[in-house]
């Protein structure tokens, strides 16, 4: 399977390799740790191509990892309503490039400074450093990139007004983290706690067709 390197990791990869080459000429034994670091960074920043399901009613996983939570919640930032929340934990061994779960336009962005506590804890969604991305398409979804204990930086690519296709790369979190996805309650979910998922490939759920009709009625009511 072909894969690329996420651009955020290339400088570190080149730097570690340069140190390895330099030390191998002076003292080969001292160069070994940097060779290990080089291979780890290549593995961590890998960005494999994915086969993206094309059905517009499907909601795809925004991250690789293990499903931590599937719960009823409330989003007061973007959906401003009751929501279904799916949380995915990314270990150091997972691909850390995040992808859009649906087709839609980015209409909301925000960034909150915070702690870097263990990302598998439920409180990390509220206390840790995080980046919010609100996408509006057939439905509205809020994607939250949450920094973990060893995460040093959250990168979010899209700007407000950008249009995304599901499966498009939307960012990366360096070194251990989680992604929370808030969805309308009408969405039918297919995943459960403990499931392993892949960004852009695993189907988290499906958009209830009635959701589109309810949304149109609500929009017409607001216009009146």
Write up this protein:
With 224 residues, the protein is α+β, with helices and mostly antiparallel strands. The protein has four helices and 16 strands. It has helices at residues 7-26, 28-44, 124-127, 209-223, and strands spanning 3-5, 46-48, 58-60, 65-75, 81-90, 97-99, 104-112, 130-137, 140-147, 154-156, 163-164, 169-173, 177-184, 188-189, 196-197, 203-206. The strands form four sheets. An eight-stranded antiparallel β-sheet has the order 11-7-8-9-13-5-4-15, with no helix packed on it. Strand 8 and strand 9 (140-147) form a beta hairpin. Helix 1 runs antiparallel to helix 2. It is elongated, with a radius of gyration of 19 Å. The mean pLDDT is 86.
Topology:
Elements: E1 3-5, H1 7-26, H2 28-44, E2 46-48, E3 58-60, E4 65-75, E5 81-90, E6 97-99, E7 104-112, H3 124-127, E8 130-137, E9 140-147, E10 154-156, E11 163-164, E12 169-173, E13 177-184, E14 188-189, E15 196-197, E16 203-206, H4 209-223
Antiparallel strand pairs: 1-2, 3-16, 4-5, 4-15, 5-13, 6-12, 7-8, 7-11, 8-9, 9-13, 10-12, 14-16
């Amino acid at each position: 399977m072909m894969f690329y390197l996420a651009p955020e990791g290339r400088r570190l990869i080149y730097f570690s390799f340069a140190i390895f080459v330099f030390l191998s000429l002076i003292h080969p034994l001292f160069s070994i740790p940097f060779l290990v670091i080089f291979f780890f960074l290549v593995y961590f920043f890998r960005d494999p191509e994915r086969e993206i399901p094309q059905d517009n009613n499907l909601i795809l996983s925004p991250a690789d990892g293990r499903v931590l939570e599937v719960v009823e919640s409330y989003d007061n930032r973007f959906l401003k309503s009751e929501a279904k929340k799916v949380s995915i934990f990314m270990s150091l061994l997972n691909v850390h490039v995040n992808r859009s779960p649906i087709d839609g336009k980015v209409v909301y962005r925000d960034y909150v400074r915070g702690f870097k506590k263990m990302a598998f804890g439920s409180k990390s969604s509220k206390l840790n450093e995080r980046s919010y991305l609100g996408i509006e398409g057939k439905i509205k979804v809020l994607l939250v990139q949450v920094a973990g204990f060893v995460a040093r930086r959250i990168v979010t690519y899209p700007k407000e007004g950008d249009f995304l296709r599901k499966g498009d790369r939307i960012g990366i979190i360096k070194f251990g983290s989680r992604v929370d996805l808030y969805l309308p309650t009408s969405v039918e979910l297919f995943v459960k706690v403990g499931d392993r998922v892949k960004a852009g490939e695993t189907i988290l759920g499906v958009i209830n067709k009635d959701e589109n009709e309810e949304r149109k009625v609500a929009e017409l009511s607001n216009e009146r």
